[in-house]
Amino acid sequence: MFLTNNFNVSALEGANLYKNRWQIEVFFKWIKQNLVIKKLWGYSPNVVRIHIWIAICTNLIIAYVEVSLESKLSIYEIMQVLGVSAFDKTPTRELLLEQRQFNQNVNEQLNLFE
Q: Beta-carbon neighbour count of residue 12 at 10 Å?
């Protein structure tokens, strides 16, 4: 049973409206959980649309890179690596697939206070 305050639509139309509304809610939940939008660039409808579309396109490109390189890193980890090495000339394949070992030996570090 579906309840609505819109008496101009049939029961089937009301159920379809609810179903479509729920799909929109699921999409916004996905946006909040998966896209990195910390602060909007502006508040006009056009700016918000552009910002969300850029975030979606970026997420899709990173997902494509993940699949094409068969990387074991998550999309978030790939974004972290690419964000840190944005101006590095190292090929993306090497950045994402290379198993780097960062072992720091304290004895090899220079002492600033000597």
A: 9
What is the sign, positive or negative, of the torsion defined by CA atoms of 53, 54, 55, 56? positive
Per-residue pLDDT tens digits for 50-97: 998 999 998 899 889 888 888 888 888 888 888 888 888 888 888 887
Write the secondary structure of 49-103 as one string of H (helix), E (strand) and C (coil).
HHHHHHHHHHHHHHHHHHHHCCCCCCHHHHHHHHHHCCCCCCCHHHHHHCCCCCC
Token pair in block for residue 9: 């639509």
> How many angstroms separate the CA atoms of 26 and 41, rounded?
24
